[in-house]
Amino acid sequence: MSSKVPPIILNNGVEMPQLGFGVWQVPDDEAQRAVATALESGYRSIDTAAVYGNEEGTGRAVAASGVPREDIFVTTKLWNSGHGYDKALRAFDASLAKLGLDYVDLYLIHWPTPARDLYVDTYKALEKLYADGRVRAIGVSNFETEHLRRLIDETPVVPAVDQIELHPHLQQHAAREYHAEHGIATEAWSPLGSGKGLLEVPAIVAIAQKHGRSPAQIVLRWHLQLGNVVIPKSVTPSRIKENIEVFDFTLDIEDLAAISALNEDRRTGPDPATFNAG
Ligand code: NDP
Fold first, then answer.
1. pLDDT digit string (tens) for 54-95?
2. β-strand partners of 46
3. Is residue 35 part of a domain?
C-alpha cells in the first residue's frame, strides 16, 4: 500500500503531504465514501471548504477511518461571506463543528474578494486562531502577488500556503516565483485541469505511453517534480488509487519540457482579481 506520500515542510516547520485529496463538487454523503476510499488508499491529506458543503461527510470519514487524527492533514477554507475579523472567527467555529474536530491542520482564506477589501482583517483572525493553537498553519487561496504583498506588509505571519489554480495550461510562473521568494508553498488546485480536456492532450498522452502510466499520473508527476502540492479530486475508486501511485517513476528533462511547453495562461475557474461572489 502506497501510504507514504513525502511531506513538504511549511514555513513554520509543519509537515504537509505533497499530495492530498480534493472534494470540491462532491456531495456530503458521497464525500464520506470518497474520503474513506482515499484514506484506505494511503492519502493522508484532505482538502475541503465551508462552501463545498461536505465538511460533515469529510469529518465522518476521518473519524471512522481508524487512522490516528495526528496522521491526517485536514485543510478547510473560509468562504467569502465570512470575511471580517469577527465573522471569520465564527465561521471557523462552524467549520470545526461540522468536521467534528478540535483543530484543523491548515485554514485558508478561500478568495481575496478584493471588492470587500477585508482580507487583511480576515487574515488577522486566522493569525489569532494560529496563536490560540486551533490551527497548525494558516494560508490563503487564490491570492495574487498584490494581495500577498499587502498581507506580508501589514501582518506578522507569512502565509504558509497559497492554493491557486495551476496545471499545464495555466502554469502561474510569476506566482510560483513570488511564493518561492517568500517561503510560501504553492498548492495547485484543479491539478488535472478539472477534467476539461487536459488529459487528452497528445503530448501528455505520448509521455503516458512512454512510461506505461496514465495521463493523470503524468500530470501529477510533473507537478510533484516542480515542487507543487497537489490535491487531485475523484469519486472513482480506481482513479483515487491511480492518482496516488506516482512516487515510483520519474519524468525526464524532455518530458518536463514538453509539458512546460503547454502553458496557455488559460483558467478553468474565476479570475481572483474580479471574483467577489458569496
Ligand atoms: P481535478 O483537476 O482534480 O480534476 C478532477 C476531475 O478529473 C474529475 O472530473 C475527475 O473525475 C477527473 N479525474 C480524476 N482523476 C482522474 C484520472 N486518474 N483519470 C481521468 N480523470 C480523472 O479538479 P478539481 O477542480 O476538483 O480540483 C481538485 C481540488 O482542488 C478540488 O477538489 C478542491 O479540493 C480544490 N479546488 C480548490 C479551489 C479553490 O478555489 N481553492 C477551486 C477548485 C478546486 P471523477 O471524479 O468522475 O473520477
1. 999 999 999 999 999 999 999 999 999 999 999 999 999 999
2. 21, 74
3. yes
